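Run log, item B.
One chain of 455 residues. Sequence copied directly from the ordering sheet:
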Amino acid sequence: MLQRTAAAGAALPLAHTLVGSNAGAQGQTPLPAFAVSLPMFSVAERDRRWAAIRANMAKPQWNLDAIITVVSDEVGSNARYLTQVELVRYSGGSPQVLFARDPAKPVLVQASAARHVQEWTARLKDGNWLADGKMKLLPETGGDALAKLLVAEGYTGPGVRIGVAKLKGTRFDPDGVVSVTLLETLKAALPGAVFLPIEKWGQDAGPIDEVMLVKSREEQDAIRRAVKANEQGLAAMVVASRSGAKRQADLWWAGFTTMVAANGDDIIRLSIGLDEGGNASLGEANSDPMHVGQFCSQEISSGFQGYGCQINHTFFIGGASTPGYSYYRATFDALLKAHQKSLAFIQPGKTTYDEFEKYLRKALVEEGGAEGGGGVAVHSGGMGQARPRGGKDNEMIIQPGHVFDFKPSLALQRTAIKDVGERNRQVQLGESILVTEKGAVRLGTRPLVPIATRG
């Protein structure tokens, strides 16, 4: 399997070169080159984020003296956005960050242990976020350590307002992820302080989320890197299918190794369904057998510097003469037209996400009859559970700098064309979208065309 994957990777555009010219001669399996993930965001980008967040903290509806992130938030997206620092999962939780509204105070990062401080000092010191002393790493973690830090920094007076990241109100964690015992420890140590949630739905997304919504040029470039790896992973799956893959797991492994090697970062999502939606496997490899005539749908999202954006591209296992291809082709073509019309409908600064989603449903009916499908029109794109997010953010106006996954699906009506089975299968086409001043553009570069794995 590794040999097949390496061979597939070598055939892809911008794919991996094989390591060691004499590896084959020595009987070793050649492996693709692996990109090591290192912090990339500039000090100017750091200062942009921090200044914007502090400006939001000063608004009357927030009026926060500080924001903290906590160890029990294992994903740690807010901590990473503020500091670039992340800790390997199951290695001590998230960094605990004390982010003061006062720019004269350094951003303090409790990085769990001395070994983590040593590692991140090495990663961040040379011309990076630690170089000017405005951010400091500390080898502590947990509720007691964070309480002592808050006391030492003077947040003990009555009426002190401390925002707590992911205390509640997030998309997948509506009750929050903050440990009850940790929060009780903080309240006991600072009885005069008020601890407040900082995530909101609606026009005011919160002091951090509002800044995260509008992606800078550096952030856009990071997402493009992630999308490129996604497309390489998709290409590797197609090559694996053409090279004799027998199970869903063969496709999964080809995509996984390609995407990890491309950026050296976590795989955020890799889910593959055969004749089902891309989320059918819940992000795991399985032993589902592959057959000629199946539709392969996916949810593919690699990471780069913690940023990801999903793509989806149903492909056909077979050729033009295989039963089911004519239905697949007709559905893909209709879905692509609805896809293009919907993106052209967006007027930055005017169109709400609700209007965009309603137009998509209309376009699916006009172009394809839409017996079933629709899918998620607006899906997180960026760091962690980034916003905008369909449904919850529907009243929000689409603005330049927003990035989201647009991944509608479609099943044509059987009165128009019949698939080979008792029901018409769905085709999905998803793309990472950046909103510019002039409209919505793709971040991917692959051709949006039907794909068959046989000639």
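Observations after the first pass:
- The radius of gyration is 24 Å.
- The longest strand covers residues 427-435.
Flagged for discussion on Thursday.
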